[in-house]
Design goal:
By secondary structure, the chain is mostly helical. The chain is built from 21 helices and 2 strands. The chain has one domain. The longest helix is centred in the middle third of the chain and has 32 residues. This is NADH-quinone oxidoreductase subunit N.
Length: 475
């Protein structure tokens, strides 16, 4: 009965136990962090078996299938990396507490529900569970004004987006009499796109989801929150929640709204192109590396939406493949940012401070350059392949102009990635960075750099098989 949701049970129960441990025993920070990582790894193994083979469960409100299992695997591993990355970044006796990993565990439970949801109410419950933990994480540094501001902005705009989403859900329920994806799809088959109520519900639903994936024009929170939140939290925001929201949007569009494809495709194409070009152009004048990576995430969301606009199983597979590679590139880039510290240990985020990094820290500069070129989609790095997949899916779906526009957007966006590399390799060297031992973080950077290097093409076969199996459940 509970086997299909074993990963969620492990994380939810584990989070409650760790919260109680932290409340009754002092000096449990390191234990809670290690236990949280162990729980996330155990949840990954719990995905083997009923968690990916049971299909629709509990009356069809959740799905334990290969699509949700793939998303959960990426989410759990991303959350584990975010916990590990925080180990040497937060102040030891003040901020490096047990609350951080507990919040990430509860957020991971919410994201797991999101990618499994096959009902609009379940969708909302999972999304809000994830969001409530995220609001606290954004303002985690209580003594930092930027962090408090980021948390407040995220909360206010998130509440607005939740209201829009709920209004869309209520409209769909009112005009279909059901909240299940199957029932909503059946209503669209009966009514077509002639029902104004259904179309308004579709628009509001997609608007609420667009906020969660930070797609234009609902991207306004992203640069400020990414800059103000603690860097390990920003790394988490840019990876796991993004994956959950994108896969949730994919399931909603290709299952619940499948009969109205031509209606939502127009919205997705607009959001895709707007995200690609705004994410590319707005990043040109950025001087803060975290804000630059925020616009990079908006830009990459646009490319993922090209695969979603293509629709069908090929489009779903391209989305899954893209988000898997994107998470590795983004986490690698943020792990490099976490190592940017002055000699006294103070972290910095200014792009100008990277000047001459290739001379003072050649290994770190090389890794960051690999991630920048891969995010730009420049061959022969592995980041080129998922972009090629979404363009191919769009062309096969007859969306040739969209693919051409996406290629042009890739060229435009390459400028600011190359700008970072130029600063590191060709500008006059600034003061040397501080050196601090962080063997686990360095090992993670090395693994991520190898994956997105040309050696990553060896993963095309196995990753392609995994994503194809995951996309095969989309009807």
């Amino acid at each position: 009965m509970f086997a299909p949701i074993l990963p969620e049970l492990l994380l939810g129960t584990g989070g409650i136990v760790l919260m109680l441990v932290a409340a009754f025993w002092r000096r449990t920070s390191s234990f809670c962090h290690a236990a949280a990582v162990a729980l996330l790894v155990a949840a990954c193994f719990a995905l083997i078996g009923p968690a990916q083979t049971s299909g629709p469960i509990y009356g069809g409100i959740l799905a334990a299938d290969t699509f949700s299992a793939f998303g959960k695997l990426v989410i759990f591993l991303s959350a584990a990396v975010a916990i590990i990355a925080a180990h040497g970044w937060f102040d030891r006796d003040f901020e490096h507490g047990a609350e951080y990993p507990v919040l990430l565990l509860f957020s991971a439970v919410g994201m797991a529900v999101m990618v499994s949801a096959r009902d609009l109410i379940t969708l909302y419950v999972g999304l809000e569970l994830q969001s409530l933990a995220a609001y606290v994480l954004a303002s985690y540094r209580r003594t930092d004004e930027r962090s408090a501001e980021a948390g407040l902005k995220y909360f206010v705009l998130g509440a607005l987006a939740s209201g829009i989403l709920l209004y869309g859900i209520s409209l769909l329920y009112g005009f279909t009499g059901t909240t299940g994806f199957t029932g909503v799809a059946a209503a669209f088959v009966r009514e077509g796109t002639t029902s104004i109520g259904l179309l308004f519900g579709l628009v509001f639903l997609l608007a609420g989801l667009a906020f969660k994936i930070s797609a234009v024009p609902f991207h306004m929170w992203t640069p400020d929150v990414y800059e103000g939140a603690p860097t390990p939290v920003t790394a988490f925001f840019a990876s796991a929640p993004k994956v959950a929201a994108l896969l949730l949007s994919t399931r909603v569009c290709l299952e619940a709204l499948a009969p109205a494809t031509e209606a939502w495709r127009q919205i997705v194409i607009f959001a895709s192109l707007a995200s690609i070009f705004l994410g590319a152009i707005a990043a040109f004048g950025q001087t803060n590396v975290k804000r630059l990576l925020a616009y990079s995430s908006i830009n990459n969301v646009g490319f993922v939406l090209i695969g979603l606009a293509a629709g069908g199983r090929a489009g779903a597979q391209s989305v899954l493949f893209y988000v898997a590679v994107y998470v590795v590139m983004t986490l690698g880039a943020f792990l490099c940012v976490l190592k940017l510290r002055e000699e006294d240990g103070t972290p910095f985020e200014s792009l100008s401070r990277l000047a001459g990094l290739s001379q003072t820290r050649p290994g770190l500069a090389l890794a960051l350059a690999i991630f920048m070129f891969s995010l730009a989609g420049i061959p022969p790095l592995f980041g080129f392949w998922p972009k090629l997949m979404v363009f191919q899916a769009a062309i096969n779906a007859g969306l040739v102009p969209l693919a051409v526009a996406g290629i042009i957007g890739t060229v435009v966006g390459a400028y600011y990635y190359i700008k970072v590399v130029k600063i590191m390799y060709f500008d006059e060297a600034a003061a040397p960075l501080g050196r601090f031992r962080a063997p686990i973080e360095s090992a993670l950077i090395m693994v991520a750099a190898v994956i997105v290097s040309p050696l990553g093409y060896l993963l095309i076969g196995p990753l392609g098989t995994l994503t194809a199996n995951a996309a095969s459940v989309i009807r």
